[in-house]
Protein backbone atom coordinates (compact mmCIF):
# COMPACT_ATOMS: atom_id res chain seq x y z
CA UNK A 1 0.00 0.00 0.00
CA UNK A 2 1.32 3.49 -0.85
CA UNK A 3 2.37 5.53 2.18
CA UNK A 4 0.60 8.83 2.82
CA UNK A 5 3.77 10.93 2.74
CA UNK A 6 1.91 14.25 2.99
CA UNK A 7 0.41 13.11 6.33
CA UNK A 8 3.84 11.89 7.53
CA UNK A 9 5.26 15.29 6.52
CA UNK A 10 2.63 17.15 8.55
CA UNK A 11 3.13 14.89 11.58
CA UNK A 12 6.94 15.31 11.46
CA UNK A 13 6.88 19.06 10.94
CA UNK A 14 4.35 19.85 13.68
CA UNK A 15 6.13 20.97 16.87
CA UNK A 16 5.83 19.05 20.17
CA UNK A 17 8.64 19.40 22.70
CA UNK A 18 8.29 17.16 25.79
CA UNK A 19 5.47 18.54 27.94
CA UNK A 20 4.33 20.80 25.09
CA UNK A 21 2.68 18.27 22.78
CA UNK A 22 -0.53 20.27 22.19
CA UNK A 23 -0.07 20.88 18.47
CA UNK A 24 1.02 17.40 17.46
CA UNK A 25 -1.72 15.97 19.69
CA UNK A 26 -4.30 17.99 17.73
CA UNK A 27 -3.08 16.41 14.50
CA UNK A 28 -3.28 12.94 16.08
CA UNK A 29 -6.81 13.61 17.38
CA UNK A 30 -7.92 14.88 13.98
CA UNK A 31 -6.63 11.72 12.28
CA UNK A 32 -8.14 9.42 14.95
CA UNK A 33 -11.53 11.07 14.45
CA UNK A 34 -11.59 9.42 10.99
CA UNK A 35 -11.03 5.91 12.43
CA UNK A 36 -13.30 3.36 14.18
CA UNK A 37 -11.68 3.93 17.61
CA UNK A 38 -12.74 5.26 21.01
CA UNK A 39 -10.43 8.10 21.97
CA UNK A 40 -9.50 9.25 25.46
CA UNK A 41 -6.93 11.69 26.85
CA UNK A 42 -5.46 11.28 30.34
CA UNK A 43 -4.27 13.97 32.74
CA UNK A 44 -0.73 13.96 31.33
CA UNK A 45 -1.94 14.36 27.76
CA UNK A 46 -1.43 10.80 26.49
CA UNK A 47 -3.97 9.96 23.80
CA UNK A 48 -5.38 6.42 23.79
CA UNK A 49 -7.22 4.96 20.80
CA UNK A 50 -9.18 1.87 21.79
CA UNK A 51 -10.58 -0.95 19.66
CA UNK A 52 -12.52 -3.81 21.25
CA UNK A 53 -11.28 -7.35 20.52
CA UNK A 54 -13.05 -10.71 20.70
CA UNK A 55 -11.85 -11.54 24.23
CA UNK A 56 -10.87 -9.31 27.11
CA UNK A 57 -7.07 -9.51 27.20
CA UNK A 58 -5.28 -6.22 26.62
CA UNK A 59 -2.64 -5.22 24.09
CA UNK A 60 -0.91 -1.87 24.48
CA UNK A 61 1.12 -0.21 21.73
CA UNK A 62 2.94 3.05 22.43
CA UNK A 63 4.39 5.65 20.07
CA UNK A 64 5.65 8.85 21.65
CA UNK A 65 4.44 12.14 20.20
CA UNK A 66 7.10 14.37 21.74
CA UNK A 67 10.38 15.33 20.11
CA UNK A 68 13.68 16.50 21.59
CA UNK A 69 13.57 20.27 22.10
CA UNK A 70 14.54 23.06 24.45
CA UNK A 71 12.98 25.48 26.91
CA UNK A 72 13.76 29.21 27.24
CA UNK A 73 15.58 29.90 30.53
CA UNK A 74 16.80 33.51 30.08
CA UNK A 75 16.42 36.54 27.82
CA UNK A 76 19.45 38.83 27.97
CA UNK A 77 19.65 42.61 27.57
CA UNK A 78 20.31 42.29 23.85
CA UNK A 79 17.42 39.92 23.21
CA UNK A 80 19.48 36.73 22.99
CA UNK A 81 17.96 33.60 24.53
CA UNK A 82 19.53 30.99 26.77
CA UNK A 83 17.88 27.61 27.01
CA UNK A 84 17.86 24.18 28.61
CA UNK A 85 17.56 20.96 26.59
CA UNK A 86 14.46 18.73 26.84
CA UNK A 87 15.90 15.38 25.80
CA UNK A 88 19.31 14.14 24.73
CA UNK A 89 21.04 16.47 22.30
CA UNK A 90 24.51 15.98 20.88
CA UNK A 91 25.79 19.58 21.17
CA UNK A 92 27.86 19.46 17.97
CA UNK A 93 24.71 18.92 15.91
CA UNK A 94 23.32 22.32 16.93
CA UNK A 95 25.90 24.43 15.11
CA UNK A 96 24.32 26.69 12.48
CA UNK A 97 20.80 25.34 12.96
CA UNK A 98 17.49 27.16 12.78
CA UNK A 99 14.98 26.61 15.57
CA UNK A 100 11.43 27.78 16.26
CA UNK A 101 10.68 29.54 19.53
CA UNK A 102 7.04 28.91 20.42
CA UNK A 103 6.04 32.05 22.30
CA UNK A 104 2.93 34.18 21.75
CA UNK A 105 3.67 33.40 18.14
CA UNK A 106 6.28 31.20 16.45
CA UNK A 107 9.59 32.97 15.88
CA UNK A 108 12.52 31.60 13.91
CA UNK A 109 15.82 31.70 15.78
CA UNK A 110 19.34 30.62 14.96
CA UNK A 111 21.73 28.72 17.20
CA UNK A 112 24.66 31.09 17.59
CA UNK A 113 28.17 30.30 18.83
CA UNK A 114 31.67 31.77 18.61
CA UNK A 115 33.08 32.10 15.06
CA UNK A 116 36.10 29.91 14.42
CA UNK A 117 38.21 33.01 13.55
CA UNK A 118 37.98 34.14 17.16
CA UNK A 119 38.69 30.79 18.79
CA UNK A 120 42.03 30.09 20.45
CA UNK A 121 43.77 26.83 19.42
CA UNK A 122 42.58 25.27 22.71
CA UNK A 123 38.98 26.34 22.04
CA UNK A 124 39.11 24.84 18.55
CA UNK A 125 40.09 21.46 19.97
CA UNK A 126 37.50 21.51 22.74
CA UNK A 127 34.19 19.73 22.24
CA UNK A 128 31.38 22.24 22.13
CA UNK A 129 28.86 22.19 25.01
CA UNK A 130 25.12 22.99 24.98
CA UNK A 131 25.90 26.00 27.21
CA UNK A 132 28.14 27.47 24.50
CA UNK A 133 25.10 28.23 22.34
CA UNK A 134 22.60 31.07 22.46
CA UNK A 135 19.56 31.71 20.27
CA UNK A 136 19.50 34.82 18.10
CA UNK A 137 16.03 35.95 17.02
CA UNK A 138 17.33 38.98 15.14
CA UNK A 139 15.21 41.18 17.40
CA UNK A 140 15.84 43.70 20.17
CA UNK A 141 15.05 42.78 23.77
CA UNK A 142 12.00 45.07 23.62
CA UNK A 143 10.62 43.10 20.64
CA UNK A 144 11.60 39.70 22.05
CA UNK A 145 9.81 40.18 25.39
CA UNK A 146 6.59 41.09 23.57
CA UNK A 147 6.49 37.52 22.20
CA UNK A 148 8.75 35.28 24.28
CA UNK A 149 8.64 34.30 27.98
CA UNK A 150 10.81 32.15 30.23
CA UNK A 151 9.44 28.61 29.91
CA UNK A 152 8.46 28.79 26.24
CA UNK A 153 9.37 25.62 24.29
CA UNK A 154 11.74 25.55 21.33
CA UNK A 155 11.91 22.94 18.55
CA UNK A 156 14.14 22.29 15.56
CA UNK A 157 13.10 23.82 12.25
CA UNK A 158 13.40 21.47 9.26
CA UNK A 159 10.88 20.34 6.65
CA UNK A 160 10.38 16.81 5.37
CA UNK A 161 11.85 16.02 1.98
CA UNK A 162 11.97 12.80 -0.02
CA UNK A 163 15.41 11.52 -1.01
CA UNK A 164 15.45 8.41 -3.16
CA UNK A 165 13.38 5.88 -1.27
CA UNK A 166 13.92 7.77 2.00
CA UNK A 167 12.21 10.52 3.96
CA UNK A 168 14.32 13.11 5.73
CA UNK A 169 13.17 15.53 8.41
CA UNK A 170 13.54 16.60 12.02
CA UNK A 171 11.55 14.40 14.41
CA UNK A 172 11.47 11.22 12.33
CA UNK A 173 12.10 10.11 15.94
CA UNK A 174 9.32 9.44 16.71
CA UNK A 175 6.70 10.86 14.39
CA UNK A 176 7.34 8.05 11.95
CA UNK A 177 5.96 5.77 14.69
CA UNK A 178 2.99 8.07 15.32
CA UNK A 179 2.26 7.67 11.62
CA UNK A 180 2.77 3.87 11.79
CA UNK A 181 0.46 3.54 14.81
CA UNK A 182 -2.28 5.61 13.14
CA UNK A 183 -1.98 3.46 10.04
CA UNK A 184 -2.02 0.24 12.08
CA UNK A 185 -5.10 1.27 14.10
CA UNK A 186 -6.84 1.89 10.79
CA UNK A 187 -5.74 -1.35 9.09
CA UNK A 188 -6.52 -3.80 11.94
CA UNK A 189 -9.32 -6.12 10.82
CA UNK A 190 -9.67 -9.36 12.76
CA UNK A 191 -7.87 -9.19 16.11
CA UNK A 192 -8.34 -11.26 19.27
CA UNK A 193 -7.73 -8.85 22.14
CA UNK A 194 -8.60 -5.29 23.14
CA UNK A 195 -6.16 -2.90 21.50
CA UNK A 196 -4.94 0.27 23.21
CA UNK A 197 -2.94 2.40 20.78
CA UNK A 198 -1.31 5.06 22.95
CA UNK A 199 0.27 8.25 21.63
CA UNK A 200 2.46 9.12 24.60
CA UNK A 201 3.97 12.34 25.94
CA UNK A 202 7.37 13.13 27.48
CA UNK A 203 9.21 10.00 26.31
CA UNK A 204 12.37 11.93 25.51
CA UNK A 205 12.76 13.01 29.14
CA UNK A 206 12.29 9.48 30.53
CA UNK A 207 9.14 7.68 29.27
CA UNK A 208 7.00 9.74 31.66
CA UNK A 209 3.75 9.56 29.67
CA UNK A 210 4.01 5.81 29.03
CA UNK A 211 4.62 5.18 32.75
CA UNK A 212 1.17 6.55 33.50
CA UNK A 213 -0.56 4.98 30.48
CA UNK A 214 0.83 1.49 31.11
CA UNK A 215 0.03 1.71 34.82
CA UNK A 216 -3.55 2.66 33.96
CA UNK A 217 -4.07 0.06 31.19
CA UNK A 218 -2.25 -2.88 32.77
CA UNK A 219 -1.60 -4.65 29.46
CA UNK A 220 -1.15 -8.42 29.00
CA UNK A 221 0.84 -7.89 25.81
CA UNK A 222 2.68 -4.83 24.59
CA UNK A 223 4.63 -3.35 21.74
CA UNK A 224 6.89 -0.32 21.88
CA UNK A 225 7.17 1.60 18.64
CA UNK A 226 10.16 3.86 18.17
CA UNK A 227 13.12 4.66 15.98
CA UNK A 228 16.49 3.02 16.46
CA UNK A 229 19.99 3.69 15.22
CA UNK A 230 21.02 2.77 11.70
CA UNK A 231 24.78 3.38 11.75
CA UNK A 232 25.31 1.74 8.35
CA UNK A 233 27.51 4.59 7.16
CA UNK A 234 31.16 5.26 6.26
CA UNK A 235 33.50 4.68 9.17
CA UNK A 236 31.28 2.24 11.03
CA UNK A 237 32.34 -1.32 11.76
CA UNK A 238 29.92 -4.11 10.92
CA UNK A 239 29.41 -4.89 14.63
CA UNK A 240 28.54 -1.25 15.46
CA UNK A 241 25.73 -0.72 12.97
CA UNK A 242 22.76 -1.78 15.17
CA UNK A 243 20.48 -1.79 12.08
CA UNK A 244 20.72 -1.04 8.37
CA UNK A 245 18.43 1.32 6.46
CA UNK A 246 16.09 -0.41 4.01
CA UNK A 247 16.67 -3.91 5.40
CA UNK A 248 13.29 -4.19 7.10
CA UNK A 249 11.51 -3.46 10.36
CA UNK A 250 13.73 -4.07 13.37
CA UNK A 251 12.60 -6.54 16.02
CA UNK A 252 14.02 -5.35 19.32
CA UNK A 253 15.82 -7.96 21.36
CA UNK A 254 17.05 -5.50 23.98
CA UNK A 255 18.08 -1.95 24.72
CA UNK A 256 19.43 -0.28 27.85
CA UNK A 257 16.04 -0.31 29.58
CA UNK A 258 14.35 -3.50 28.35
CA UNK A 259 15.18 -7.12 27.68
CA UNK A 260 12.26 -7.97 25.42
CA UNK A 261 10.28 -11.06 26.37
CA UNK A 262 11.97 -14.03 24.74
CA UNK A 263 8.54 -15.45 23.79
CA UNK A 264 7.54 -12.19 22.13
CA UNK A 265 10.80 -11.90 20.18
CA UNK A 266 10.32 -15.46 18.94
CA UNK A 267 6.67 -14.76 18.02
CA UNK A 268 7.55 -11.55 16.16
CA UNK A 269 10.29 -13.24 14.10
CA UNK A 270 7.97 -16.12 13.18
CA UNK A 271 5.14 -13.71 12.30
CA UNK A 272 7.44 -11.66 10.06
CA UNK A 273 8.68 -14.78 8.28
CA UNK A 274 5.16 -16.18 7.91
CA UNK A 275 3.95 -12.99 6.20
CA UNK A 276 7.12 -12.42 4.16
CA UNK A 277 7.85 -9.15 5.95
CA UNK A 278 11.52 -8.11 5.87
CA UNK A 279 12.97 -7.78 9.39
CA UNK A 280 16.29 -7.44 11.18
CA UNK A 281 17.26 -7.92 14.83
CA UNK A 282 18.01 -4.89 17.02
CA UNK A 283 20.25 -4.75 20.06
CA UNK A 284 20.90 -1.22 21.30
CA UNK A 285 23.41 -0.89 24.10
CA UNK A 286 22.42 2.68 25.01
CA UNK A 287 19.00 4.31 25.13
CA UNK A 288 15.53 3.13 26.07
CA UNK A 289 11.95 3.47 24.85
CA UNK A 290 8.34 3.24 26.04
CA UNK A 291 8.78 -0.55 25.82
CA UNK A 292 10.16 -0.47 29.39
CA UNK A 293 7.02 0.94 31.08
CA UNK A 294 4.79 -1.22 28.83
CA UNK A 295 6.64 -4.26 30.15
CA UNK A 296 6.80 -3.28 33.81
CA UNK A 297 4.34 -0.58 34.90
CA UNK A 298 1.22 -2.77 34.90
CA UNK A 299 0.56 -4.73 38.11
CA UNK A 300 1.39 -8.11 36.57
CA UNK A 301 3.86 -6.93 33.95
CA UNK A 302 3.28 -7.73 30.29
CA UNK A 303 4.73 -9.89 27.55
CA UNK A 304 6.44 -7.08 25.69
CA UNK A 305 8.49 -6.50 22.59
CA UNK A 306 9.09 -3.64 20.19
CA UNK A 307 9.09 -2.77 16.52
CA UNK A 308 11.88 -0.31 15.76
CA UNK A 309 12.37 1.79 12.67
CA UNK A 310 15.97 2.01 11.45
CA UNK A 311 16.94 5.70 11.39
CA UNK A 312 20.14 7.38 10.29
CA UNK A 313 21.40 10.66 11.78
CA UNK A 314 19.15 10.20 14.80
CA UNK A 315 18.65 13.11 17.23
CA UNK A 316 19.88 15.52 14.55
CA UNK A 317 17.78 17.78 12.31
CA UNK A 318 18.17 15.48 9.31
CA UNK A 319 16.87 12.15 10.58
CA UNK A 320 16.31 9.65 7.77
CA UNK A 321 14.15 6.55 7.38
CA UNK A 322 13.38 4.28 4.44
CA UNK A 323 9.85 3.88 3.05
CA UNK A 324 10.25 0.11 2.84
CA UNK A 325 11.10 -0.13 6.54
CA UNK A 326 8.09 2.05 7.42
CA UNK A 327 5.84 -0.18 5.33
CA UNK A 328 7.36 -3.31 6.88
CA UNK A 329 6.81 -1.90 10.39
CA UNK A 330 3.10 -1.27 9.70
CA UNK A 331 2.63 -4.76 8.29
CA UNK A 332 4.60 -6.44 11.10
CA UNK A 333 2.76 -4.62 13.89
CA UNK A 334 -0.62 -5.32 12.31
CA UNK A 335 0.15 -9.03 11.80
CA UNK A 336 1.56 -9.35 15.35
CA UNK A 337 -1.59 -7.85 16.93
CA UNK A 338 -3.92 -9.94 14.76
CA UNK A 339 -2.18 -13.25 15.50
CA UNK A 340 -1.61 -13.00 19.26
CA UNK A 341 -4.06 -15.81 20.07
CA UNK A 342 -2.46 -18.23 17.60
CA UNK A 343 0.78 -18.51 19.60
CA UNK A 344 1.56 -20.55 22.70
CA UNK A 345 2.72 -18.15 25.43
CA UNK A 346 3.90 -20.91 27.78
CA UNK A 347 7.52 -20.64 28.80
CA UNK A 348 9.37 -23.36 26.90
ZN1 LIG B 1 12.14 8.11 20.20
How would you summarize this macromolecular structure in one to three sentences?
Helices cover 27% and strands 28% of the residues.
Question: Secondary-structure map with pairings?
Answer:
Blueprint: H1 5-13, H2 22-32, E1 38-41, E2 47-51, E3 55-64, E4 69-75, E5 81-86, E6 98-102, E7 106-112, H3 121-125, E8 134-136, H4 141-147, E9 153-156, E10 161-163, E11 166-169, H5 172-187, E12 193-200, H6 208-217, E13 221-229, E14 249-254, H7 262-274, E15 279-283, H8 291-296, E16 303-311, E17 319-322, H9 323-338
Parallel strand pairs: 3-12, 3-13, 13-16, 14-15
Antiparallel strand pairs: 1-2, 2-12, 4-5, 4-9, 6-7, 6-9, 7-8, 10-11, 11-17, 14-16
Helix pairs in contact: 1-5, 5-9
The protein binds zinc ion.
Zinc ion binds next to helix 5 and strand 13.
